[in-house]
Amino acid sequence: MIVPPPRGPAGPATHTADTDTDTAPASEPAADSAAWDGADPYAHALRSGGGPLFLRRHDGWLLPLEVERWCGVPDGADVTVLRRCTGPVLDIGCGPGRLVAALAELGRPALGIDVSTEAVEHARSRGAAALRRSVFEPLPGEGRWGTALLIDGNVGIGGDPAALLGRAAALLRPLGRLVVEAAAADDVDERLQVHVTDGARGHRGALLPDRARHGPPFPWARVGLPALLRYAAAGRWREEDRWTAGGRRFAALRAPARTPRTAPR
């Protein structure tokens, strides 16, 4: 998903990772939870399996969201991500669940989390284990996930990449793997206030934002590969690999080793 989650029952029995939830909540808020869950255009797009759908900035700038791809089966670029998944997998912002469902079909323990009720229901309908929850809320198996995924632009969740990478490190086991999809190959590093919109169009195709359905504003970030790797280095992540597939850019990062200061109590 580009996209993302609060509380809900556990997903289907295909998830075999630890399910304890007694971990203290992270300090960063899930500022976009209500925005995604209240974004009717997003829910409508998932139900219909297609867009148009955008993230819209206050000045009218639009970022297209690839709903058709999210609702489809994993493509060749997704396969390069799935091949790098080891141990139990946490898909952060799983959307309609194509990656978690694919892992389940392979017999791999995996859980998706998303702030959208519609996305979680869609993921579960595909046989994926999914929870309606923010990455910044308490989650099952904290500190024991083998791989975490931030795909489809989800490194933008919360509008603070450094905080998101820090949270991912806390979720992974020591030296666990994070697979991240960057927003661009160039050095993009933007903080945005956006909302989800269906970008209603007039009879000549002109966008008519005043007629579009849209959700409330929330913080987001766009991070290119160079900026992503800077954030990773500052957080003591080790770059393991980087690659391009299907015009999309990815990096695999190794989480910091656990220290007495960072070890869960």
TrEMBL record:
<dbReference type="GO" id="GO:0032259">
    <property type="term" value="P:methylation"/>
</dbReference>
<keyword id="KW-0808">Transferase</keyword>
<dbReference type="Pfam" id="PF13489">
    <property type="entry name" value="Methyltransf_23"/>
</dbReference>
<feature type="region of interest" description="Disordered">
    <location>
        <begin position="1"/>
        <end position="34"/>
    </location>
</feature>
<protein>
    <submittedName>
        <fullName>Class I SAM-dependent methyltransferase</fullName>
    </submittedName>
</protein>
<dbReference type="InterPro" id="IPR029063">
    <property type="entry name" value="SAM-dependent_MTases_sf"/>
</dbReference>
<dbReference type="GO" id="GO:0008168">
    <property type="term" value="F:methyltransferase activity"/>
</dbReference>
<keyword id="KW-0489">Methyltransferase</keyword>
<feature type="compositionally biased region" description="Low complexity">
    <location>
        <begin position="10"/>
        <end position="34"/>
    </location>
</feature>
